[in-house]
TrEMBL record:
SUPFAM superfamilies recorded: CoaB-like, Homo-oligomeric flavin-containing Cys decarboxylases, HFCD
Enzyme Commission numbers on file: 4.1.1.36, 6.3.2.5
Active site: 169 (proton donor)
GO molecular function: FMN binding; metal ion binding; phosphopantothenate--cysteine ligase activity; phosphopantothenoylcysteine decarboxylase activity
Gene field: coaBC
Lineage of producing organism: Bacteria, Pseudomonadati, Pseudomonadota, Betaproteobacteria, Burkholderiales
Name of the protein in its database record: Coenzyme A biosynthesis bifunctional protein CoaBC
Keywords: Decarboxylase, Flavoprotein, FMN, Ligase, Lyase, Magnesium, Metal-binding, Multifunctional enzyme
Role description: Catalyzes two steps in the biosynthesis of coenzyme A. In the first step cysteine is conjugated to 4'-phosphopantothenate to form 4-phosphopantothenoylcysteine, in the latter compound is decarboxylated to form 4'-phosphopantotheine.
Start and end residues of each DNA/pantothenate metabolism flavoprotein C-terminal domain: 196-403
Keyword presence, Membrane: no
Length: 413
């Protein structure tokens, strides 16, 4: 199988998807330039349709340049051969996304009004509809708006956001449009099969940091990319995801609850605190095996006689083995990075940690890289997956885990 790089997966993520991206009037129209760029970069074809009000905030010329397709703004546009733009534009679409969705446009949708091209397209569609609200906080909180949004949800429309925070009008509250990257992530998630719907997944990721003194410590080269990619893939598959992360410089994946920790002991405590609410536990973190017995309270200084500092190490708790030993454990998945003889060490480690599934990395050199090659160890034998970009691999692994994890959560239930 061909090797997929990060760039290749980015290109492939929405490949083959055709979206109608409808802009209604609002200052958040500026965010749609970036959203369009992200969608096009991910391989989607994007057909822009704008209301008259939207053209006051961003020009059709800009949107045409970014989408690479003609932009439609009027239901009387004669460019479509049979003059049926309101029907034809959505017929090939996998979804219509309204972003930004203004208060007025949401009201129109809730009542099935169609007095312009975009609202008519929505009423005449035969594909899913996603709306991304953007408005002042009072307009969002208005009972009429809340009724209209509830009606849209009841009609099966996906409502993405809104966000909370500073608004263009200077006020602060709910109603901001999601950022372009968050909207993009929500659209990608919408297209993924919900194979983990209703399941609660707990993931550890990244390295741990064990202090020697206030400025030094022991850590390792884990970047956290694999664990974060698994958290993203699990959330896209519909799971409720709790990510316990060691010190890494990565963005929290869309829809994931993240808890940051530093040391192995903190990671252990955070995980043990969360396991009762967990169906599937995936231990991806590269946990430090040892810590210094008493880290120095003050910075350790060099001495005049050049004496080397000495440290006493004690073993850190094995988080995965501890969870797997619980009386009613979640379905436990371990990872193993070995520098050699993976087939022997992988199965030995799986049996020793008493977990049903262990994923073996082919070599520690995968640390920090964007792709990876893994082997699945189970009591029944070994399965090899092809080398792939970590995001794509994460999706393949989540599919393998979803097939194996018993419904109802615990192995014993
Ligand atoms: N793990 C853990 N807690 C630890 C050590 C490891 O939860 N204190 C988990 C890792 O997250 C991984 C699996 O156990 O899922 C295997 O980790 P690895 O570092 O490969 O194995 P170790 O148990 O540390 O064994 P060794 O370093 O001797 O190979």
């Amino acid at each position: 199988m061909a090797r997929l790089t990060e760039a290749a997966l980015d290109t492939a993520e929405l490949a083959g998807k055709h979206l109608v991206l409808g802009l209604s009037g609002g200052i958040a129209c500026y965010k749609i330039a970036e959203l369009t760029r992200l969608l096009v970069k991910a391989g989607a074809t994007v057909q822009i349709v704008m209301t008259e009000a939207a053209t006051q905030f961003i020009t059709p010329v800009t949107m045409q340049a970014l989408s690479g397709r003609p932009v439609y703004t009027s239901q009387w546009d004669a460019r479509i051969a049979n003059n049926m733009a309101h029907i034809d534009l959505s017929r090939e679409a996998d979804a219509i996304v309204i972003a930004p969705a203004s208060t007025d446009f949401i009201a129109k949708l809730a009542h099935g009004n169609c007095d312009d091209l975009l609202s008519t397209l929505c009423v005449a569609r035969d594909c899913p509809l996603l709306v991304v609200p953007a408005m002042n906080r009072q307009m969002w909180q208005n009972p009429a708006t809340q009724r209209n949004v509830a009606q849209l949800r009841a009609d099966g429309v996906q409502v993405l956001g809104p966000d909370s925070g500073a608004q263009a009008c200077g006020e602060v509250g709910d109603g901001r449009m999601l950022e372009p990257s968050a909207t993009f992530e929500a659209i990608c998630a919408f297209f993924q099969p919900k194979i983990l719907q209703g399941r609660r997944v707990l993931i550890t990721a990244g390295p741990t940091f064990e202090p020697l003194d206030p400025v030094r410590g022991i850590t390792n080269r884990s970047s956290g990319k694999m664990g974060f990619a698994l958290a993203r893939a699990a959330a896209q598959a519909g799971a409720d995801v709790h990510l316990v992360a060691g010190p890494v410089a990565l963005e929290t994946p869309w829809g994931v609850y993240r808890e940051d920790v530093q040391t192995a002991q903190q990671m252990h405590d955070a995980v043990l605190h969360a396991t009762a609410d967990t169906d599937i536990f995936i231990a991806v973190a590269a946990v430090a095996d040892w810590r210094v017995d008493h880290a120095s309270e003050h910075k350790i200084k060099k001495t005049a006689d050049h004496a080397m500092p000495t440290f006493t190490f004690i073993e850190n708790p094995d988080i995965l083995a501890t969870v797997a030993r619980l009386p009613n454990p979640p379905y436990c998945v371990g990872f193993a990075a070995e520098s050699g003889n993976l087939e022997v060490h992988g199965e030995e480690k799986r049996a020793r940690k008493n977990v049903p599934l262990l994923i073996g990395n082919l070599g520690p050199l995968t640390f920090g890289l964007d792709d990876n090659e893994v082997v699945l160890f189970e009591a029944s034998g070994i399965t090899r997956l092809p080398r792939a970009d970590k995001k794509l691999l994460a999706r393949l692994l989540i599919a393998e885990i979803a097939k194996r994890a018993p419904r109802g959560g615990s192995l014993l239930s």
